[in-house]
Structures are given as structure tokens and as C-alpha cells.
Protein 1
Amino acid sequence: MNRLALITGATSGIGRATALRLAGLGYDIVATGRREERLAALRAEIEGNGGRCTTLCFDVRDLAACEKHLAPLGRVDLLVNNAGLAAGLEHIDCGDTGDWDAMIDTNVKGLLYVTRIIAPKMVAAGGGHIVNIGSIAGTEPYENGAVYCASKHAVHAISQSMRADLLSSGIRVSEIRPGMVETEFSLVRFHGDRERADGTYRGVEPLTGDDIAEAIAWIVQLPARMNVNDIVLMPAQQAGAYYTFRKNEK
Ligand code: NDP
Ligand code: 8X3
């Protein structure tokens, strides 16, 4: 029987790359997201490569939908809590409260809802691995990013606590905290403004979704006695939230 990996937010970026990479390692994939046609395309690609993929289309902010889709799953060996977003980039006095709700409800509450349904299955099975996608924003608060940074600080705290909670059940918890990764992230953050989104990566070679997927593939293949608690992955041109070297700029 193949191992099963559940990846939230697999319709683009890091999640999609991770689903493909883990399918290549022989995992059966359960891929989630809200965009049905993207899920169908992912499934076709995995199946075209000889893998197995189930797709579940729902919003992680909706607890009832999480329960409806995830409770029927059997054994889950690996959960990648990836679904998330940044919405807006403004000073706190100008922020959009709808954006704030979206970030907190998705990045924090959505991750908790999914974990609450899957972790007991791992406890019952006597083991498993949970990989949470945090961010450098989880330890480096930056101007204009109060709520996104708060949500990723929460992911960082939750990851540490859940690691302790699940230790005696043989469940490993790892957190990956990337810097700049070129995905749909900035397009979503800037509400579809392509020019502004592209500006994020001006003069920089950012990480790719495949780079993060590669790290996840490494982490999950380590011997059972080993765990990566926390890994910060950066583009070579970025040292931190405030330090990016952009080529061709003074
Ligand atoms: P993308 O926008 O490319 O992918 C985000 C994924 O999350 C999509 O599959 C999207 O699917 C899903 N998602 C968003 N909201 C919901 C929701 N309410 N319910 C279900 N799924 C949802 O961005 P990334 O791949 O970059 O982002 C993945 C994770 O990586 C996020 O947690 C992000 O915070 C984190 N991260 C990203 C970095 C970057 O620079 N790109 C750096 C550090 C961390 P759909 O829209 O179909 O629902
Ligand atoms: C995404 C990277 O720098 O926008 O988490 O926080 S950053």
C-alpha cells in the first residue's frame, strides 16, 4: 500500500509543485484547493505520470466543508499544511478588514481546522508527519505586513506547540519558512495587479515552488529517528525581510 500525502492549496505554486514531487516519490496524493479546474489538471498530470491523485474542492476557512471532505479519509501519512495567502500590503491604519479576515481565517484557522481533523487519524495510526508552510514573516515582522506577519507568527507558534503535543504519538512536525518564492502569491497579495506583483521580483532570482517541494521531499525521506523542526529557505539574493540585493539597482 502506498503512503498517502494530503496537500492543502495544491492548485498553484508551492502546493502544486509539492503534489507533483511527492507523487514522484510514490505517494498517493490528496490535493485540495478551491479551483476545481486546476485540481482536475493536477490530477490529470499526476495520473499521466502513472501516479494516483484524489482531489477535494473546498475552502479551508469553512469548518463544515473541511469536515465533510477530510473526515472520510482513511490513513494519512503526510499532511502538508500549505494553503495560505497574503492580501494587501498597507500600513495598519489603512488595512482592509476583509483582507485581514481572509489571512487569519485561511493561514491560521484553516490550518487548525485541517490539522484538527487529520491529527487524530495519525494518532490512531501511531505515526505520521505534518509539514507546515510558515514564512520568514513568522519571525520577522515588516512594515505594511502586520496581519500577514501575525498569521505566520501564529503558524510558527502552532508548529512548535503541535510538535510537543504530538511527540508521544510518533508524529513528526516540521515547518518550512521560505523567503521570496515566485508563485501566484504576489498576484493574490496585490489583488490581481500584475505589474505590482512582478515588481516584487525585480532584479532578483526568487525561489520556485519546485525548490520548496525539493526541501519537503528531503525532509520526508529522512530516517524516522530524524526530524527537521524548522528550516528557513531563502533566495541567495535575500538575507531577510529587509535585505534584498536587486541586480542593476544602485
Ligand atoms: P499561491 O497563491 O501560488 O498558492 C496558494 C494556494 O493556497 C493555492 O493553491 C490556493 O488555492 C490555496 N488557498 C488559498 N486560500 C485558500 C482557501 N481559503 N481554501 C483553500 N485553499 C486556499 O501561493 P504560494 O504557493 O506561494 O503559497 C503557499 C503557501 O506558502 C502560503 O501559505 C504562503 O503564505 C506561503 N509562503 C509563500 C511565500 C512566497 O513568497 N510565495 C513565502 C513564504 C511562505 P485556491 O485559490 O484554488 O483555493
Ligand atoms: C512570503 C514572503 O517576504 O512576503 O511569506 O513575507 S514575505
Protein 2
Amino acid sequence: MQTKDTLYIGGEWVAPSTSNTIEVISPATEEVIARVPEAAEGDVDKAVEAATSALAGPYPALTPDERADMIAKLSQAIQARSADLADTITAEMGSPSSWAPMGQVFAPSMVFDGWADLTRTFSFEEIRPGAMGPVLVRKEPVGVSAGIIPWNVPLFIVALKLGAALAAGSPMILKPSPETPLDGYILGEILDEIELPKGMVSILPAGREVGEYLVRHPGVDKVGFTGSTAAGRKVGAICGELLKRCTLELGGKSAAIMLDDVDLDAAIPMLMPNSFMNNGQACVAQTRILAPSSRYDEVVDALGAAVSSQTVGDPTDPSIAIGPLVAERQRDRVLGYIEKGRAEGAKVAAGGGRPAGIDRGWFVEPTLFAGVDNGMTIAQEEIFGPVLAVLPYDDPDDAVRIANDSDYGLSGSVWTSDVEAGIDVARRVRTGTYGINQFGTLDMRHPFGGFKASGVGRGLGP
Ligand code: NAD
């Protein structure tokens, strides 16, 4: 049982302004594993004050190379604490230890490395020809920024946002989700260790009310939000009303299109780790699998066998593929979608409930639905759990139509022996990041973000 009694505000470990606390509950055992302070409005005020001072402090005045060195140091320090970070994220949200070291720690470190490289080469100042003489265009720090972080890949989302802020010289106030406050304590220690100038970062774990207070705060100039589409609409509305810049990275319901020449033996083993990534709690997961009608039964059988073979259980056991869902409410939500799938006439081809023999923890069996129509709830709404749907299509045009018949547009993939045919499909799907014979979730140095209800703006890349 870990207990913390301070918050990281402006580079100092300070007593919180209230006695409110967050209990962290293990999704695998349902036991309380930690108690930490919950940040309140007074703490946000302090963080904004520190960040405002930091804007006039040493960090934003560093050269791009000096800022890049700091970001690279941050990446190295994350790698040095890799085991500790991965174990902590597994403990707080159930990320399987077969994936967490890579997905929850190494990937964020690579994102920071990407930002460091970009900071060295990006043109922060350039002289452009103008009608009345040369024009000096300067890219300046946006001001005080806020990063609102979801619980599924907490350090990764921090890397997307904080990397950009540190590249540009903007102080950032991070607000982790109440489900995952613990990794933020390690991040605070790392920021101390690399001697990031004071004021540049605060870490305030709290719920949505305090998040909203931070978004509305007159001292905050830019909001980077990652989370559900519902909360993103709210944050976007507030930013619109207050004319603040904001970037929204929201949900997804991405389609993997199997063309009729697909080699299932090659495709399915590559697709599974994406579709069930992080226990199915990934915004970029390929959760609708589109199969040609001519090969539909064969695809369902092959996927059914692959889904049934996924191991479920203790996320600290590295032989396990799928751990628990983050919270009881999330488990119940996912089971509710499975019931809805059945009620709307889809057929369970694998899984379909709680795993037998596991009597505690918020586990759901990896589940495959067949006989799914794209109008069904399980094909339209983001489930955020280990539940996949296989849909039949007639020809590639029909596949593209079904892929695009979604409120979302975050990721997607096409699986084929004919790369040109794959590129043709890729060009026609309205989505952010697309993979051909891979799940193409994102690349650390290239833009990432969504179309439609998957978000506004892009993270990563220049
Ligand atoms: P959530 O929207 O409930 O919460 C996300 C974060 O926003 C949390 O820190 C929460 O406290 C905060 N928040 C919620 N309402 C707020 C408000 N009104 N004002 C300010 N802050 C508020 O989402 P979640 O359940 O934590 O995360 C899962 C969701 O995140 C999924 O829908 C998933 O697809 C999405 N996600 C998207 C991406 C992406 O890059 N597109 C990445 C990861 C997760």
C-alpha cells in the first residue's frame, strides 16, 4: 500500500490545499493499493501561477538545441525507470505486463526522442520574402498549457502533449485521471532528476470537475485533451466560448478491411495484439473487422480460434495477453455492450461474458461477434474493451462505405497481398492514421489525430 501526501506543483513537492484523497484500486484484485491527494481548485491556481512565472523564466529562453537536450534527457531518465513505471501502470490500471514495458514506457520514451529530434531541426524562426521586404516569422510558446490525460496509456499521452510543450517552451499543467495517479509521481521524480527548470510542469491528479476548472482557468492559454468523445465535446465547447486554443484526441471505432486475397495466417496474428491492445482499451484498436462475403465464414472461424486462444488473467504474469478492465463501471459497460449485441441479433462466435474461474478483478472474456450489421450498437459505439465485430462486405467499394459509415475516424487498416489495392482503399477511408498490412496506429514523428468525432487538431509531427 503506497501513500502520498504531496502534489507536484511547479517543480516542488507541496502539501495539497485540501484533505481530499484518491484511492487507487487494483483492477486485478479489487484491493486498495494506494492513497494519494486529489488536487483541488486551490492547487490548480498555484500551478497556473508557477507556470505563468516559468514563461518568463529560463526554460523558454533556451535555444532549441538546449530544449532538445532536456527532452532527450527526459527520455533517457524514463528508460532508466522503465521497470518501475511499467509495474506501476500495470498495478494501477491492469495493463498486461506482456505489453506494458513496450506500450506504456518504451513508446512514450520514443515519443520524447521524436520531439527532441524535431526540436533540433524545426524552424522556430524564419525569414520569408514579403511584398514590402523580408518578414521574420517566429514560432513562440503558446503560453500556459494544460494536458488532460486519460487512464489507458497515461505516460504515452503525457509524452504526446508534454513533448510538444517542452519543444516549444510552454509550461504545462498535467491532469492525470483519478484511476492512474501513481505513474505521475515517478514522472515528478524524473523531472526533478533532470533538473527541469521550476514551474515548467505541474502534475495534478483529479476528477472531471477540477479538470474543467483547469480548462476554464483564465491563466491557461491552450488545452490538449485526450479522452472520451463526450468529455471532448464539453472541453471543446468551453474552449470555444473562452476562445482558447484546444486539441482534442478522442475515441475510435476503426475498421480493419480484409481484402479477398488476404493471407489470414499472416494477418490475424498481427491484428490480434492491436485489436486487444491494453485489454481492448486503446483508442486506435481495430474493432470492426470487415471480411469479404465470399470468405466470411472462413474469416469468422479463423478469428474465433485466435480470440479463444487469448490468455486472460493476472496482468503481472507476462504469459497473459489480456488483463482486467480499468474499473468495475468499465467492466459493467463492456458486459452491457455484449448483452446489447446479443439482443440486436449478433451471434457470439467466441467469449461473451466473464471468464470462468476468475472470481475477483474486472475481467471480461475476449469476445468476437459475427453476423454483425454496421447499424448495430456494437458496430457504432466505442466499447473500449476486448470485444470485436466481424462484418461482411460485397466488394472494396462496399468495404470503404462501411468503414466510413461511422461517427469516428481515428485509425484503420487494410490487409491484402496487393499493396496498390491497399493504398487505393487507404486513400478512400476518412480516418487519421492508416496501416497497410500493419495496424499503423501512429508514428512518433508524423501527425496523429482524428477525423469527425475522433477529434480536432493533430498531435506529433512538426
Ligand atoms: P474521459 O473522457 O472520461 O476522461 C479523460 C480525462 O478527461 C480524465 O483525466 C478526466 O478526468 C478528464 N475529464 C473528463 N471530463 C472532463 C471535463 N468536462 N473537463 C475537463 N476534464 C475532464 O475518458 P477516459 O475514460 O479516461 O478515457 C477513455 C477514452 O479516451 C476513450 O474514449 C478513448 O478512445 C479515449 N482515448 C483517445 C485517445 C486519442 O488519442 N484519440 C487516446 C487514448 C484514449
Protein 3
Amino acid sequence: MKKLIVLAALALSPVFSAQEMVNKPVQSYQTAQYQAKRKAFVENLLSKMTLDEKIGQLNLPTSGDFTTGQAQSSDIGKKVEQGLVGGLFNIKGAEKIKAVQKVAIEKSRLKIPLIFGMDVIHGYETTFPIPLGLAASWDMNLVQQSARVAAKEASSDGINWTFSPMVDISREPRWGRVSEGSGEDPYLGSEISKNMVYGYQGKDLSAGNTILACVKHFALYGAGEAGRDYNTVDMSHVRMFNEYFPPYKSAVDAGVASVMASFNEVDGVPATGNKWLQTDVLRKLWNFKGFVVTDYTGINEMIEHGMGDLQQVSALALKAGIDMDMVGEGFLTTLKKSLDEGKVTQAEIDMAARRILEAKYDLGLFDDPYRYGDAKLAAKEVYNMENRNIARSAAAQSMVLLKNENQVLPLKKSGTVAVIGPLVNNSLNMAGTWSVATKHAASVSLMQGLQANYGKEVKFLSAKGANIDYDAKLEDIYAAHGKKTDRDNRSKEELLKEAVDVANKADVIVLAIGESAEMSGESSSRTEITIPQSQVDLLNELKKTGKPIAMVLYTGRPLALTNVKDIPDAIVNAWFAGSEAGNAISDVLFGKVNPSGKLPMTFPRSLGQVPIYYNAKNTGRPLSQDKVDKCVYERFRSNYMDECNTPLYPFGYGLSYTKFSYSDMSVSNPNPKGNQTIQAVVTVTNSGNYDGAEVVQLYIRDIVGSITRPVKELKGFQKIFLKKGESKKVVFDITPESLKFYNGELKLDWEPGEFDIMIGTSSDKVRNSKINWTKE
Ligand code: NOJ
């Protein structure tokens, strides 16, 4: 019998208790009383500081991770002693951090504590899926929880500032850093952005187990030309405000304590020296109150951008609104001279120093400079079983089932399974990009996961089958930062033969192919977004065995899978799933977890379609939907002669082992007026054979506007859990807030008229209701 349940509230997360969740953080440091106290403290301190000491607060070197004993003797140690350092980043370990803090507190004149930053991007030692994967979970409790776990681990080990969340919207899969963000959508990106900030910062930044978040890279870093890292960006302000800015603003609205400037230029001025961006938009328009840090040598790089010499670009950055200089020491070495020459003002230097001191005050460091980092606490907090279980669950939730034919998945818990692929026994590549603190050796490889979880019932055989790439030099470049891929020097034929032999002994093949971890991430742009040929050849060879193939895809970006998608029976996109990758993949393959991930970024058919994204404009010559669906070419329409318009897998797409059917969509009022709230309702039924979770997506199209509007925009989603046979009524509240956009004058407002209200299982499969919303 089917049960009908009305679901009004947000996502159901089967995994976590909500107890620790912070939904509306009332940050103590926002009250007037707190601010008056902080002001008195900081102004008093500033009045005692020399110019050098003030400039010193703006200096953020990297440590090179010296050992404990070197803290004092190193060059940085000396600078700390002289008060010429505001913070340090990427030192790992409570004891080491304490030793440096000790130098600041015991040897520097004013005993100003340092802040300690790190790229804690998707977890600390317990590593979660890469951010693009986490985004695919569409589970905001989980997203927040991942940041909470990361903050607890990192803070117990001495870190009180993370360079996360990275929220750069991107429609460019050539760009390796799409792996670090939440994909292409401003709405989903904004939800994730704020939940990451809540998770890191909690309610109280001085709690000792919360840390400063840093939203980055402000701004538009994901829109570099041709997907080449650090490349030029040029876009209209209307696009910036409507499509690229929302996730940064969402972090600011959530109270993010710091912002990192991006490397790229915006309107012809590098973001690091762009006053319009860092002051007019960020502070004046959005009311940001924290501090802005450059990216790594961002000031110095303005010399190469063609903005002047080090003194000029440092002054430009300070005047633009930059407070802290990461690594380059442009501030440290030139600001005094610029002040003497009248190129910067004392007030500008004071303002930057004030903002750094305020952040330190908020962290409680003036009360207790050793508040963060306690080896005993770290031993309990870091990489404990509870955190690993959360990471395992997050990893399974991030996986996207792209295809499942002949009911190959879930696998049967019996017989023999051939586990084949270049990384099946590799732990080092499981965490993916930005895993500074990851316990790599302990990361669970696919074979380890399968053996540990199902080794008693199932016989697993393994073979490498192919190297990541035929080209050994390229494979070296891919692994240049240390994530070795265990290249096998046997010939291609030998590797294939071994794989085929193993496959012939098995009932089913699990073939794990795709990218290695460092094929995405910073400075990892690719001109091809396909699976390397060595691995495609392996797939084709295994196909000849006639055995069913379940393909596990490792990737940090959307790949063009056109040449492989028809070959395996099933494809699970596992991204880079983190510390617990092998366990989580096993959970999904054997059906312990029914996959529910949905793509946060479009997977194109070919690179030629890029940029391709669901929330595109209609153009004046759109191809009719019928022709789009049938992939029919029409002359003088917006389409390709040699390729369909549709992507391979659209935004929001992802299958389940069960089936969800949508019915009875309706809106509560087709003619709303003014500030009314209406409801869009749909019934979702689990009509398949497994319990499972579904992400129900709400899209809206504004039919006529004063500027052209996208064909659809995500405006809401709910992740619901349905038992086999169960139905739920899903209700979305819609207010004029959902209709707002930045118009030609960059004013945020909504315009009356007709709207399509669409609900569905992915961006391309929706049911539609038309409404007409009038102002009064
Ligand atoms: C450069 C990267 O662009 C940025 O994301 C990172 O936080 C810094 N390096 C510090 O490692």
C-alpha cells in the first residue's frame, strides 16, 4: 500500500543528527556591545604600534612547514620576533604551531598572536569528497557537517583559518579547478557557500573549535578564457551580478570572516588591485566587515599583469581594499616608502591592520593565544572513527549513477568480481586535489574497500589493465605534486592480457577508470576532457570478454564520455571521494547505499559544446524543442551541424537503483499578486524496488524581462527519502524573492508577468505550470 506524506520542510538527511547544525548563526561579535569592546581593545593596541608593526600584521608568509625546533631560528621566526608577521599558513601540527606562537607571544614587543591558516578545502586529515563531488550530494546538512568536522579537526591541531569555501562558478571543464567548487549554478553554489561558512565558523568564532572561513576567489576566477588557469576574464556586469557573484555574496551574508582576492583581472584591472571589486562591491554594496587577503603572490603578479613595479602594485592593492599580502611581501617591503612619498595614507595602513587585529580578537587569541592546537585534543579529534564514518557517508552521497542497464548494479554479494583499472590499488589518489592534511597512506583504495566490506562473500581479483596514460611524460606531469600513479612498465599488451585473463575468471567486471587526482585542481587545465586512450582501450578490450561491466569513474571535472558511455552496462561517477573512497564506492556498488547524487555541472558530449550550461539564454533563433530532442540540424538556427545541442548528462541529472515518478504537479495560485507566497506542489513516488533518496528540483523561467532571462533557473530543491512504494507530496514556497534578478541598472528587483514554474528530477526533465504574477 502506498503512503502519502506531506513534506513541507527542507531536505531529509538520513545520516546526521541536526543537533549541531547552525542555521541562523547569531554571531556574538555582531552585537553593538561586543563591537564597542573590540573597538576599544583594538584602537588601544593600534595606538601602541609602530608603523613597521602595523605593516607586519599585513604580512602572511608560508612556513615551508619547518620543524618545531626551527621556529625560532628560521627567517620567519626572526620576522615573527620583530612583529613583522601577521599570520602563517600551511604549517601542520599542534606542537609546531604552538612553538611559533610562542615566539610571537614571548619575543615580540607587543605580543600580538599570529593566526594560522591552511587550505582545509574538503576536510582536514579526514578527507571528504572533492567539493564538486560534495556539491553533487545536494545535501546541505552534509555540506555543513563536512565543514564542521574539518573545523574541529583543524582547530584541535592549531589551525584557526581555512582558505575555503571556494565558490567560483564555472562552466568550463577544461579548467582543473572546477573540482574545488560547486559547479555551474548560482543558486546551488550560494546554498553550499553559506552552509560551508556556517560549518566552519559556527556561532562563536572564539569557541576554540570553530575557525575563520575565507570565501574565494573574489571574483570570477572560474571564467578564465579557454579554461587556462589564471587567464583573463572579461564579462558584463549583468552576468557578474546575476550568475557569478551570488555565491560570494551568500558567504558574505552568512558572515564570512575573510575573502581571498582572485588572480584574474576584472574589467581590465587584476582583482587584487581592483577597488571597484574589493571596496565598492564587497564592502559598500554587500557590507562586508572582515578582511581581504590576496592569493599567493597576488600583489607581485600584478607586475606581470602590467600594472607597475612592486611599490606601485602594493600601493594599488592597499588602496583597492586588500588587507593582507600572501607570501609576496610587497606590503612589507614597500608600504613605508609609499607612505613617505604620499602614495598611500596612514589611515589606509591602519585600516588594514585594524581588520587583521579584529579577526584575531574574534578568534579569542588576545585572551588565549594558545586556544587552538592541543596535541592531546588533536589525538582524539583528528581522523577519529566518527569523522571517518561521516566522510564515508558523504562520499557515498556524492556519487552519481550516470547509467545502469541490465540491472548490473547493485552487484550480487556472491561469485567473482574482477576489479580492474590503473588506480584500483592506489590510496594516494583517492583524496583528490587539495589534500594538504590528508592521511594519504590510510585512504581506502577501491580494492581495500571491496575486500574489507565484501571479501567474505565475494572473490575479488584485480589487475591494473593500463596506465593512466600511454604517455609516460604526461603521466609524470599529472603526478608532479606527489600523487604517484604507480606506473607499470610492462607493455600495453601485457597489461591488457593480464586484465582480460582476470576478467575471464569473473562473473562481472568493476572497471575503475578516468583521471588521476592531480589531473584536476590548481594549474591542471586540460585541452581534452576525455578519458585517456590507454584506459578507453582497456574498456574496449574488456568488452570483448562479454562480461557485464560496471564502470567506476574517477574525475575532478565533467568529462566528455561520448566515446565510452555505450560500452559499460553501468557508470558510477565516484569523483575523488576522499579518505573513505574505497569503502564508499563499495557501499554504492553493492547497494548498501542507493546512489542519489545529481550533477552540479553539465557533462558535455564534446569539448566543442563548451561552455554548455542549463541556465542558458534562449537566443533569437533557438532550435525548436522537438529538434533539440531529436538532435536535428536546422540551418540559420542556433545549433551545430556536427553535434546535438543537448549535453550528454545535464545539470541535475543522476539515476538511482529505484525509480521515482512525478505526478500531480500544481501551483496554489496561478495569478499571484505583489508579495504573496504561492506553493508549487508535486507528488513523487518511489515506484521501483529499492528505498532511496531523490533530489526534487524547482526551476523558474521568467518569460519576458527588461533584459533577456535564462530558459530556466534553479530556485529550490529538496532531498527526500522514500521507501519502496512510498509517495510524498513535495511543496515549494515561492515568493517574489525567487523572481528577482539584477536588471540593466544592476538593481535587484522582480518584474511582473508570466513565469514557468517547473519541477523535476533533473534540469531537462521537468513538469511545467504557467503563472502570471502581477505587482498589485
Ligand atoms: C593558491 C590558490 O589559488 C589558493 O586557492 C590557495 O588558497 C592559496 N594558493 C594558498 O595555498
